[in-house]
Amino acid sequence: MRNYELVFIVHPDLDQEALTGVIDRVKGWITDAGGSVEKVDVWGKRRLAYMINKQREGQYVYVESKLPPEATAELDRNLRFLEPVLRHLLINPEL
């Protein structure tokens, strides 16, 4: 198990309930892959540096987790196809 940090930007027009649903879905993917979620921090709505899908703002979410290295590809693929997620970045801070 390795430590990973995930930051993803969600569509700004989602209400709190829909945002919680997206976060729960991501946490579910992590736990289904055999990992564990250590910390979830919602940074809130912030202005983007450039427009993404005609949006100037996004809701930022930060997740610290422990995952097996082979599960990162599946998590990355799932995030890419999750429609409310505008962008995401998954890194291993130890490397």
What's the layout of helices and strands?
Blueprint: E1 2-10, H1 16-32, E2 36-52, E3 55-67, H2 72-81, E4 85-91
Antiparallel strand pairs: 1-3, 1-4, 2-3
Main attributes?
2 helices, 95 residues, alpha+beta, four-stranded antiparallel β-sheet
Describe this structure in words.
The chain is an alpha+beta fold. The protein is 28% helix and 48% strand. The protein contains two helices and four strands. It has a four-stranded antiparallel beta sheet, covered by helices on one side. β2 and β3 form a beta hairpin. The longest helix has 17 residues, at 16-32. 17% of the residues are buried.
Major beta-sheet overview: 4 strands, antiparallel
List the uncertain runs: none
Q: How far apart are the first and last residues' alpha carbons, in Å?
A: 14 Å
Strand content: over 45%
Number of strands: 4
Major β-sheet strand ordering:
2-3-1-4
Averaging pLDDT over every residue, what do you get? 96
DSSP summary: helix tally: 2
The coarse silhouette is: globular
Calculate Rg over CA atoms. 13 Å
Helix and strand composition category: alpha+beta
Task: Write a brief caption for the model.
The protein is α+β, with helices and mostly antiparallel strands.
